[in-house]
Amino acid sequence: MTIINTRKIAMDIVTAVLEGGAFSNKELNSAFQKYDIKDVDKALITEIVYGTIKYKYSIDKILSAYINYKFDKLDKQLLNLLRISLYQIKYLDRVPAFAVVNEAVNIAKKYISPSTAALTNGVLRTYLREPNRYNKDNEGKKEQLAYEFSFEPWFVELMIKQYGEASTKEILLFLNSTPSVSCRVNSIKSSTEEIMKKLSDIGYEVEEGIACPEAFYIIKGGSIEHNPMFIDGLFTVQDESAMLVAPSMDLEQNMSVLDLCCAPGGKTTHMAELMHNEGIIRAFDISKEKLDKVRDNCKRLGIENVELKPLNAEKHSNSLVDSADRVLIDVPCSGFGIIKKKPEIKWNKTVNIASELISIQRNIMHNASTYVKEGGKLIYSTCTLNKQENEENVRWFLKTHSNYEIEPLQLGTAKNFCYSEEGCLTVLPNSYMDGFFIAKFVKVW
């Protein structure tokens, strides 16, 4: 019988993410399908993986005080073994430090090379004896915040420049928080009250949403994907910030709607539900694989008014010109609002990411503007907090497309809702919601 080494699995996943550009959630799902792992071990692996990735900057600052040469000279598996071990010692109270060190030495000896065991033992035991070799107080204010919240200094600087220091601290704090389980009731099949009651009756702890009537949160309970109500399409998983998009579109039942960047389909299916399966939603994405997942979601939820086709939204389509009452463009973005769900975004984005994305975003905005009927509406959304991709793109669009006007949004007065002078909405991350941005334009001629 194969013995499952949970920390070896965690090390491999962290290595795949940090060194190979893999996605943490996909690597975890793949490992859980490959190995027969107990739920308690799955929880530990998940905690180690997400925690190590989340706090990589701070962990590396500490490790640099105990390693005499640069990280790029270390074996990548060894480096990530040290990272996951230090994470457990520093951040996980329930894991005895001596056990972490012993397990790390054994993994180094067995899976990396016998010669690395001594270095592993030396670094970790020296940290236990002298935990304060690295002193953030010797750094500047920006670097101190970077260490405290484990973000790259350039990101801290960007947030301070755009939001101010006080708001930045809250943003960084909530981007590091544990993601909530946010769900959306399928209004075609049920109601929020009914689903929440049924879940409560079978032992789930649930709470109402903050701003969206279809939203609720699962605080405690079993696996969602195996829940019969989820399987039957009575509800789906979606962050409440993203749930604000469909209601902002002023949808009517017999409208023609385009969703140009539809995967994974949460907003598409929400629109269909609000339209009561009437009208037509033509949903596009560049990836056929992603479209297949959207199709599966539509089938599970009982959605019948969605047509799915591959399309590169950056390329203009003459067949779509003046064809839609509503057009949604949830454009590719830096993703800075969803870091607590995808912590690797901290490390796979660079200071130049906005300039690389803005031309793509603006191409999509321009193309989409030609697909809207006169009097129709164009909705622009991102899951980033970067104002270069949000408010600055809105101002560019209004300046270059005189046939459009902005329509101010009013989607509630939650503490984390920030409305710009133009009436765009930025949702700041909190313990429940991701960071998000929405703007609405009307085609006046």
Looking at the structure, what is the overall shape?
Answer: globular
The CATH topology annotation of the largest domain reads as: Rossmann fold
Mean of pLDDT: 95
Quaternary structure state of the chains depicted:
single chain
Tell me roughly what share of residues is in helical segments.
40-55%
End-to-end separation = 71 Å
CATH architecture of the largest domain: 3-Layer(aba) Sandwich
Number of strands: 13
Which structural category do the helix and sheet elements fall into? alpha/beta
Beta-strand content estimate: 15-25%
Q: Identify the CATH class of the largest domain.
A: Alpha Beta
Our count of domains comes out at 4
Major pleated sheet: 9 strands, mixed
- CATH H-level superfamily title of the largest domain: Vaccinia Virus protein VP39
Backbone CA Rg: 24 Å
Explain this structure to me?
There is one protein chain. The chain has 445 residues and is α/β, with parallel strands linked by helices. It folds into 4 domains: 6-134, N-utilizing Substance Protein B Homolog, Chain A (Orthogonal Bundle), CATH 1.10.940.10; 137-175; 181-237, 2-Layer Sandwich (Alpha-Beta Plaits), CATH 3.30.70.1170; 240-443, Vaccinia Virus protein VP39 (Rossmann fold, 3-Layer(aba) Sandwich). The protein has 18 helices and 13 strands. It has helices at 6-20, 24-34, 39-54, 56-64, 76-91, 97-112, 114-129, 141-149, 153-163, 165-175, 192-201, 228-231, 240-243, 266-274, 288-301, 345-348, 353-369, 391-400, and strands at residues 181-185, 205-208, 215-220, 235-237, 256-259, 280-285, 306-310, 324-330, 372-382, 404-406, 417-419, 425-427, 436-443. The strands form 2 sheets. Strands 5, 6, 7, 8, 9, 10, 11, 12 and 13 form a 9-stranded mixed β-sheet that branches. A hairpin with a 6-residue loop joins strand 2 and strand 3. Helix 5 packs parallel to helix 7 (114-129) and helix 6 runs antiparallel to helix 7. The longest helix is centred in the last third of the chain and has 17 residues, at 353-369. The termini are far apart. The model has no long low-confidence stretch (mean pLDDT 95).
